[in-house]
Design a protein that fits this description.
There is one protein chain. The protein is of the alpha/beta class and 445 residues long. The protein folds into 3 domains: 3-85, Up-down Bundle (Four Helix Bundle (Hemerythrin (Met), subunit A)), CATH 1.20.120; 101-296, P-loop containing nucleotide triphosphate hydrolases (Rossmann fold, 3-Layer(aba) Sandwich), CATH 3.40.50.300; 304-430, 434 Repressor (Amino-terminal Domain) (Orthogonal Bundle). Helices cover 55% and strands 9% of the residues. The protein contains 20 helices and 8 strands. The protein has an 8-stranded mixed sheet, with helices on both faces. A hairpin with a 7-residue loop joins strand 7 (269-273) and strand 8. The protein is flat.
């Protein structure tokens, strides 16, 4: 999302490099580049003006002009001010001390309210909550059905009363239902419109007055750019929202909404949608987002994804198998699936400091090839997975046919597995008492 902005900011910072000292003129020239980069990223012009003013005031101070490494000081200042611009620290969802916590999801049509209502419900279900999804959109064709489908996928109950009942009555009845059945969180999926209108706002205001939601989250499509800020401002003026959910943050957007919404509305971005899957949602951390924008990566989010994807008991078992050299293709498949759970390769690489997702374009990483790897192993018998040595030419033909791949691809996978096993054995040999063996890496990058 921020690749273009990251590149432009990096070019702006180059103006400060290789200079033992900076003058006010140097700072002014660099700030001009930063200003243009932010404007091209579709950041609100008022936000840009104030941001550049604040950074400039700090950049011409003694801490920079008298510094031995002024370029690093400038980057630090920009990072600090980006964090402040986006809210300073993470803003968590407020949980009501008296259940249920009622979360009212609002926004324009097509922003992703229904999907993100389900995503949030799924996130909190993993944390031990008992969420209830509520179908308050009685206008959009198949809106109720869509919520029921995503609810079923996440095994979360959906409360609906059809499309002939007032959304206000549905919301009120849903809260009563939640209290009766022990649901401690209620997510109201309200109707959207193609634009902000009086009828929409009146209905939302009536729902708010009736159920007194704990949170009113505005779902905003990050692809809207400047319009996203205008939408956020309109909803906030009328509903006094408590936070924002930015969707389609994985898309080809310039990122202006993420840098503008907090400043314009005064309300925090609480969550970001990062993909189409129902688990593709993350809490919003201003400091981590600033690091991504400046090309510093996001190691904390990468670690959290790994912790969510990897099973601790399986990890202990895997360690034992590696020690005993009993790692087989079933284990290989299990590890492979856990890595896939972390997200796309592009997303993961974008979290590594100094690595940008667009740098992978020349690498030609084919996500479909990962699916073929899985298909090849699934086409094997249990005996073949446990003892790959028995896979002869005729077996390879059968596996290739069963997985919809070629014998060459089967051979390639078996070679990779063999190389991996050799590496594990070498690692095991290095742990022997008094032994120091030089290990050769079997892979070349």
């Amino acid at each position: 999302m921020f690749d273009s902005l990251s590149d432009k900011l990096a070019n702006a910072f180059k103006k400060f490099k290789n200079k033992g000292k900076l003058t006010e003129s140097d700072v002014k020239g660099g700030m001009r580049e930063i200003k243009l980069a932010l404007l091209e990223a579709d950041v609100n012009f008022k936000v840009v003006r104030e941001f550049v003013k604040t950074v400039s005031e700090r950049a011409v101070g003694a801490e920079v002009l008298e510094s031995l490494v002024p370029a690093q000081q400038i980057v630090k200042i920009v990072n600090d001010e980006l964090v402040n611009l986006m809210g300073g620290s993470q803003s968590k969802l407020t949980i009501s001390p008296k259940p249920p916590t009622v979360v009212m999801m609002v926004g324009l049509q097509g922003a992703g309210k229904t999907t993100h209502s389900a995503k949030l419900a799924g996130m909190y279900k993993k944390q031990g909550k008992r969420p209830l999804l509520v179908a308050c959109d009685v206008y959009r064709p198949a809106a109720i059905k869509q919520l029921e489908v995503v609810g079923a996928q996440l095994d979360i109950p959906v409360f609906s009363m059809g499309d002939s009942v007032s959304p206000v009555d549905i919301a009120n009845a849903a809260v009563a239902h939640a209290i009766k059945h022990g649901n401690d969180m209620v997510f109201l999926d309200t109707a959207g419109r193609l634009h902000v209108d009086e009828v929409l706002m009146t209905e939302l205001t009536n729902i708010k007055d009736t159920v007194s939601p704990t949170e009113i989250l505005l779902v905003v499509d990050a692809m809207l750019g400047q319009d996203a800020v205008n939408v956020a401002e309109s909803f906030n003026n009328l509903l006094d929202i408590t936070g924002v959910v930015l969707t389609k943050m994985d898309g080809d957007t310039r990122g202006g909404a993420a840098l503008s919404v907090r400043h314009v509305t005064g309300k925090p971005i609480k969550f970001v949608g990062t993909g189409e899957k129902l688990d593709a949602i993350e809490p919003f951390y201003p400091d981590r987002m600033a690091s991504r924008i400046l090309g510093m990566g996001d190691v904390l989010s990468l670690i959290e994804k790994a912790q969510q994807a990897f099973d601790e008991k399986k990890a202990v078992e895997m360690e034992r198998k590696l020690r005993e050299s009993s790692f087989d293709l079933n284990d290989f498949l299990d590890q492979f699936r856990q890595v896939k759970e972390m997200g796309s390769i592009e997303q993961l690489m974008g979290m590594i400091p100094g690595m940008k997702a667009d740098a992978l374009k020349d690498a030609k990483i084919d996500e479909r090839a990962l699916g073929r790897t899985e298909a090849i192993i699934l086409a094997m018998t249990q005996k073949e997975r446990q003892k790959p040595d028995i896979i002869n030419a005729s077996r390879k033909k059968r596996i290739a046919a069963g997985s919809g791949t070629s014998v060459e691809e089967v051979n390639k996978l078996l070679r990779q597995f063999e190389q991996m096993n050799k590496m594990f054995k070498q690692l095991g040999g290095m742990t022997g008492k008094g032994k120091r063996r030089r290990m050769k890496m079997p892979f070349s990058f």
